[in-house]
Design brief:
4 domains; binds iron/sulfur cluster; alpha/beta; Rossmann fold
Length: 448
């Protein structure tokens, strides 16, 4: 694709990067076929190619974002399916991140949209505030239809996502070091996360148990916070970079202190962003080197565990698991095989989901900010999951779990919860709802 940036524009490293990305696109349109919003809406401007043109036009002309551009960029899930499909290696993620930051700086949103975005950016990344907001929201959840009726659809969507029951706080909400069983084989940081530690503390608890049993010392680092992806995807660049820097400092202290073999992440949306810290901070002289070092150490939990002998003896009576591949894992990190291999090694029968490349509609805060498209994608995903007739749905991202669990009859769990259970950990709470006979056969199988 030809571009027409001036030399003065190209002196800005962000514009130079955008120019490089745009020039790689040969506008073949292969990406449109696997873009969830194009598949649903059929509008070229809701396809990757259409969005690339919109961003190109906005940046080349150094124009403030228009309502039209904002509508189509906001509808992008950042699922990165287009990057998997693109034969020319167009780095759509970096381009749309740049586009979103430009929108944030140049466009004045309607008050209700601004309110929601400020609320989300100042609540979700902070576990204490998020827990308080969930408690408050659970009191007014019944008013969701009213908010829908008066046009506050995002507020209504947010209330509908509040879980019926809040899990108890886990003992892992403070910095600490979890010692391995037996001799130490490795030392890792485990990202504590923000929303996940409130919504499903059982995920990191399962990861810690399994890692400790495998001889891995787990550090919950002092000074760590949200990875920054929630606000990064809203174009709030400075806030995202501040959160990234805080984590980099916290983990560098551990790296240079006790040493680290990896930085492990159980929420794949966060993992994709942490692996991108090196790029995000490439122009920051105080952080570029440290950021690149941290990104190189980041691993999804499944990516890390796949090389371990889990010590599990395959037993009969395995349950069938529909593996829902989170977009941030399959498209963002290109991790597709490892979670399925681990589940199969642990005796589960793993089933692929039809249209597995399409997003479930969660996408960070997307299911709150674009509730209608998110709902359509969820319905489509649930139908495809049901086609597998599996006993359980497993996935590697809390966002997908929150999006899918209320809409499907079978339990939705994190992959690590199944692995921990199969290797001697407790039965995941979500599986207690399984039919007694299935449960019994599994308990017998695990105990045998
Ligand atoms: S598939 Fe790649 S090269 Fe083709 S239009 Fe899409 S982004 Fe451009
Ligand atoms: S990131 Fe996903 S929704 Fe956005 S353009 Fe690419 S495929 Fe479409």
């Amino acid at each position: 694709m030809q571009t027409s940036f001036t030399l003065a524009q190209l002196a800005d490293p962000d514009i130079a990067e955008a120019d490089k990305i745009l020039r790689a696109c040969v506008h073949c349109g292969f990406c449109t076929a696997t873009c969830p919003t194009y598949v649903l809406l059929g509008d070229e401007l809701d396809s990757p190619r259409g969005r690339i043109y919109l961003i190109k036009d906005m940046l080349e002309n150094d124009r403030p974002a228009t309502e039209e551009v904002v509508k189509h960029i906001d509808r992008c899930l950042s699922c990165l399916s287009c990057m998997t499909t693109c034969p020319s290696g167009v780095h759509y993620m970096h381009l749309v991140d740049h586009g979103r930051a430009h929108i944030e700086q140049t466009y004045s949103r309607p008050w209700s949209d601004r309110f929601m975005r400020v609320l989300l950016a100042n609540v979700l990344p902070y576990p204490g505030r998020f827990r308080a907001a969930l408690l408050a929201g659970s009191i007014v959840r019944g008013f969701a239809p009213l908010f829908d009726a008066i046009g506050l659809k995002s507020l209504a969507a947010m209330l509908r996502l509040i879980p019926a029951r809040m899990p108890a706080r886990s003992g892992y909400e403070r910095p600490q070091v979890l010692a391995p069983q037996g001799p130490r084989r490795a030392r890792v940081v485990l990202l504590q996360g923000c929303a996940q530690q409130v919504l499903a503390p059982s995920i990191n608890a399962a990861a810690i148990r399994l890692l400790n049993r495998l001889g891995v010392e787990v550090v919950l680092a002092e000074g760590e916070g949200c990875c920054g992806s929630l606000v990064h995807h809203m174009g709030r660049e400075e806030q995202a970079l501040a959160q990234a820097r805080a984590n980099i400092d916290a983990w560098t202290t551990e790296l240079e202190g006790g040493g680290l073999d990896a930085i492990l992440v159980t929420a794949s949306g966060c993992g994709t962003t942490i692996k991108d810290y090196g790029f995000m901070l490439r122009s920051d002289p105080g952080f570029s080197r440290k950021a690149a070092r941290i990104s190189a150490l980041a691993r999804d939990i499944s990516e890390y565990l796949v090389d371990f002998d889990l010590g599990f003896q395959p037993r009969s009576g395995g349950l069938t698991v529909a593996y829902h591949s989170a977009c941030s894992l399959q498209h963002g990190q290109k991790i597709t095989r490892q979670p399925k291999d681990l589940l199969a090694k642990c005796g589960f029968t793993v089933r692929d989901v039809p249209e597995g490349h399409l997003c479930c509609g969660s996408a960070g805060t997307y299911n709150i900010l674009e509730p209608e498209i998110a709902r359509n994608l969820r319905e489509r995903k649930v139908k495809n999951l049901e086609k597998t007739s599996a006993d359980i749905v497993a996935t590697g991202n809390i966002g997908c779990m929150t999006q899918l669990a209320p809409a499907i009859a079978v339990p939705v769990v994190h992959t690590i919860e199944l692995l921990d259970w199969a290797c001697g950990g407790p039965l995941p709470e979500a599986l207690e709802s399984l039919d007694d006979s299935v449960n019994k056969s599994r308990r017998i199988a695990v105990a045998s």
